[in-house]
Design a protein that fits this description.
By secondary structure, the protein is an alpha/beta fold. The chain has 8 helices and 10 strands. Helix 3 (about 80-100) runs parallel beside helix 4, helix 5 (about 165-175) packs parallel to helix 6 and helix 6 packs parallel to helix 7. The N and C termini lie close together (about 10 Å).
Length: about 280
Amino acid sequence: MQIGIFAKTFPGSTPLEVLKAARDAGYASVQYNMACSGLSSLPTEVSDEVANAVATASQQTGVNVSAISATYNMIHPDLATREAGRRSFEAIAAQAKLMGSQLLTVCTGSCDAQDQWRHHPDNDTGSAWSEMVKEFRHLVQIAERYDVRIGVEPELANVINSAHKARTLLDTMQSDRIVIVFDPANLFEKEEPEAQKAIIETAVHLLEDRIEIAHAKDRNADGGFATAGKGVIDYPHYISALRDAGFRGDLITHGLAANEAAGVSDFLHSVLGRS
């Protein structure tokens, strides 16, 4: 298991400066964002020149590109907005292998038109589920065309808001192009320590055959998000659950400031060393 970080944690608009910052803070990999190449996070085109610059930066720094963000609201109420997101997904997918990754991360969406990370009561309806499945069918076709995988992360504010729904999606789609991005802090807001552990263990067990990468952020006691190691999640327990499930992928932190990155790297390396 190696430790990575969201590339966008660091300021910079060239992949070399961003990946150098990640390396210097103690990280072996990144989850890349096209904004780190001076583009939109959802560009309409990714040129060979841009893609090669990412690959070159990875080679020069030794920092792997574990995944690339292609995150848009998959159930946005406006179909044109949804289609624009899908076109950007394809633009990134077309160059992903050249950049060094075959994993694109997505957002299963919210019916909130302004914020894809904000809960909407319609997210739990059959209609929202149906629209999301339709969108996944489009993405699976793109993924097959470019030989990439689609990383789905259960998020409390999205349609896939639990490990059980993620398992249902995997069983419904029956596509090995869809894999899981696992983040324990997205599985609950406020729970007692033993309940937290049970939720995490159950989720890992449900999804263990499809977890591609794991995330590392935390929760405060009041339910808000926190930097990994500064909240209430029992990280040795979390890492042990992943290891017991046979997970050997990247552990990627996010939701932190650049000046916290080195400290979080030290914390995660310490946990890996003793778990």
